[in-house]
């Protein structure tokens, strides 16, 4: 990981295309609301330079306002958004990307992701629609409208199909990742193909914060349970995007670069995987 950008000491993770993504980002979504002030605080006071959103979250245009108010230059930011399945398909994807750019007030995206492997298109297989959609993503990438492209919630089977059907390997796969949901086989597969693994829901929607082992480790390191979860994720080499609408929580979530969790304790956290999802489960999608 290369140093630079973002909260003090926040490393960047290189992608296969030569770009690099800050290892810590701010997640934004419709669940739990959206806070303009929290985003401005993250950018101005916490040094956050990586923002993750999606069309489905309905806050792209709100983010444009927060980014403008923060005064942070576009070139210093990493902005990720996602394509929702209502826009899958070759032409729709290209149109949806331009619309997302317009709502965000940007001329390009740092990363554009296919949000979910299920296509919901009558008369067409998911595989067919994913391939057609990915061809549009490849074109957006070649034109420079998307500087990196990837997928979200894709499992090995979905990635294997895409490999057979398309040319460019996704640069990123963004998947649920926390102590109870650590899909190591998928992480290893992505690494073997130079796909950067990005984890959402690092706090398991709060479920991890009260787990006795995590509370105990927080006491041991003089940290909060949230900081333990985020630091563990980052130490496992995962690009991590905690979400919060509270300025003080965002501040806390960023203070994870001045301590290291010992290997034995990382193993304790690794051993907590029980397979539970706090978000969607893509395993039934062909």
What does this structure look like?
The protein has 286 residues and is of the alpha/beta class. 38% of the residues lie in helices and 13% in strands. The protein contains 10 helices and 10 strands. It has helices at residues 36-44, 60-70, 90-104, 126-143, 156-165, 184-192, 212-221, 225-235, 247-254, 263-270, and strands at 12-14, 20-22, 26-27, 50-52, 78-83, 111-114, 149-152, 172-176, 196-200, 239-240. Strands 3-4-5-6-7-8-9-10 form an 8-stranded parallel β-sheet. Strand 7 (149-152), helix 5 (156-165) and strand 8 form a beta-alpha-beta unit. Helix 1 (36-44) crosses helix 2 (60-70) and helix 3 (90-104) crosses helix 4 (126-143).
Strand order of the largest sheet: 3-4-5-6-7-8-9-10
Q: How large is the share of residues in beta strands?
A: 5-15%
Oligomer: single chain
Q: Specify the overall morphology.
A: globular
The share of residues in helices is 25-40%
Task: Tell me the structural class.
Answer: alpha/beta
Mean pLDDT: 96
Summarize the structure.
The chain is α/β, with parallel strands linked by helices and 286 residues long. It has helices at 36-44, 60-70, 90-104, 126-143, 156-165, 184-192, 212-221, 225-235, 247-254, 263-270; strands at residues 12-14, 20-22, 26-27, 50-52, 78-83, 111-114, 149-152, 172-176, 196-200, 239-240. Helix 5 links the parallel strand 7 and strand 8 (172-176).
